Amino acid sequence: AKIKEVEFVKSSARAKDCPKHDRPEFAILGRSNVGKSSLINSLVRKKDVALTSKKPGKTKLINHFLVNKSWYFVDLPGYGTLANQLSVVSQVPDCRGQGFGDLRFAKAPDAARMDWSAFTKGFFLSRDTLVTVLLLVDASVPPQKIDLDCANWLGRNNIPMTFVFTKCDKMRAGKGKRADENLRDFQQFIKDNYRVPPPWIMTSSVTGLGRDELLLHMSQLRNY
Ligand code: GDP
Which UniProt keywords apply (predicted)? Predict the structure, then answer.
């Protein structure tokens, strides 16, 4: 399951410019500052192949990286920032309803809308090689509406996802809720809203928590 080689392939401005649908893809997504670069660095463990700030292309592009010559890591533009919004969800929307099957979202509230550029949506809706979306969620803050909206949108469009909680080392954060309480709240949301809850993995780029689990999870999904 180890990442031995990462090769930048291309940056695409539109879904139809992406590489051919020839290999399994894992898209990585989350709001700005969620810890995406740190997580990728910790997965890849090589400074020179990491996708930090010096990633190819601009942040508003879809970046494809070929890993071990066999599958793609797709770095998608982040959505939102902690500064510009992140209203705390005081009441988790009730989205229970009809389910569609495995890993399918039951029924999203009408309000669930994602303010993505069309091309990000186009990517999700057009890539039949997409194995799963790794949806990064910051465990150091309470569940955020923008993350729930994103999960709702993916669920409503039947896009498989894996919740990857970041910053799980912050279990004793001074103010507000601790990461374990935040996690519990978010996990409750998942349980309440999915007939078959998508998998979730707890990670920390500081302690390395969840790193091997995430790599194993991806390799298992590839072999289906
Ligand atoms: P990005 O914008 O999603 O790529 O986020 P970064 O990886 O740049 O991280 C944003 C901030 O969160 C930085 O200050 C990181 O040091 C911090 N951070 C990222 N991952 C972790 C983590 O696992 N634990 C803790 N405590 N802080 C983290």
Answer: GTP-binding, Magnesium, Metal-binding, Nucleotide-binding
The response to whether residue 205 sits with its C-beta less than 6 Å from ligand 1 reads yes
* Domain-wise residue ranges, the chain: 14-222
Pick the CATH number of 14-222 from 3.40.50.261, 3.40.50.720, 3.30.870.10, 3.40.50.300: 3.40.50.300
Q: Whose CA is nearest to atom 22 of ligand 1?
A: 167
CB 82 within 8 A of CB 141: yes
Q: What is the pLDDT of residues 109-161, one digit of tens each?
A: 333 445 566 667 888 999 999 999 999 999 988 888 888 888 888 888 889 99
Contact 162, 199 (CB under 8 A): yes
CB-based contacts of 29: which residues, under 8 Å, 6+ apart?
76, 78, 79, 133, 134, 135, 136, 150
Residue 42 beta carbon below 6 angstroms from any ligand 1 atom: no
Q: Which of 212, 205, 165 has the alpha carbon at shortest distance from 187? A: 165
